[in-house]
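Encode chain A's predicted structure.
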Amino acid sequence: MDYKALVEYVAKSLAEKPEEVLVESFERGGGTVAIKVKLADADVGRFIGKAGRNIEAIRTLVRVASLRDRKRVFVDLANPSISQHESRPRTPRGEGRE
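Encoded structure for chain A:
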């Protein structure tokens, strides 16, 4: 089964900018496959979903599909963390409030 195509189809279906979806697949030893998904920054939240439900559903779908081939398939997001771009100074709790 083509796990990369499965993840790409789902990612493009979720994305508002499907032309910016890039899915890469890497064969690791021992029947393990790693799939990296890169999306437009605006689509990352849609792909992850509320409380991570969408990405967990995608991982479950791929895991179930890979059982027949007896492979382990990992799906990860390749985008840099959004929190790295939004660096703002944090204040300790209780300080700065009146």
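The domain at 3-80 is CATH 3.30.300.20 (GMP Synthetase; Chain A, domain 3).
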